[in-house]
């Protein structure tokens, strides 16, 4: 079993509104490649398993475009159920491994009340040196995009210790407001929220 998760926020963002609005906040399976709010920047993180889990990156990290609808749903369902048991929230966003998405993936995401988050800046931190990742940020920001939705990976220490401090300083110096994905979309991070499971020792990851 491999529980892969991503951080779509820099911290756990909870909302009283999300608690009360319940299932009204279902999303429609759209593919998000950039923020909706101008001059915002969202730093997102893939992969794990690691110490953090806030949104869905599937259960075993497959290329979802190679799976049946039932298999896609199972990948999302297992992750959603684990997050809900541990944190008490049903996430409103998911990211497909490798950014691989097709009509089947978006249809299943829509049925599950989620939108699909991709990116418009790939730091390539899994494949290049920190200096090269920083150069990618430089190149992208130099084009003065309206928004930045960046892909990073929390499984690489140099991303946290070198790339992110550089990226944050750069983005802020160019007038971008650092936000969560939900904030950059003018929406909420969760479909609903409630108390976590009382007895997590009884919860089994299968």
From TrEMBL:
Major localization listed first in the record, in broad terms: membrane
GO terms under biological process: carbohydrate metabolic process; cell wall organization
Membrane recorded as keyword: yes
InterPro entries the UniProt entry points to: Glyco_hydro/deAcase_b/a-brl (IPR011330), NODB_dom (IPR002509)
Name this protein carries in UniProt: Carbohydrate esterase family 4 protein
Membrane topology term: Lipid-anchor; GPI-anchor
Keyword Zinc: no
Keywords: Carbohydrate metabolism, Cell membrane, Cell wall biogenesis/degradation, Glycoprotein, GPI-anchor, Hydrolase, Lipoprotein, Membrane, Metal-binding, Signal
Gene Ontology CC: plasma membrane; side of membrane
NodB homology domain residues: 1-179
PANTHER family reported for this sequence: CHITIN DEACETYLASE (PTHR46471), CHITIN DEACETYLASE-RELATED (PTHR46471:SF2)
Organism: Serendipita vermifera MAFF 305830
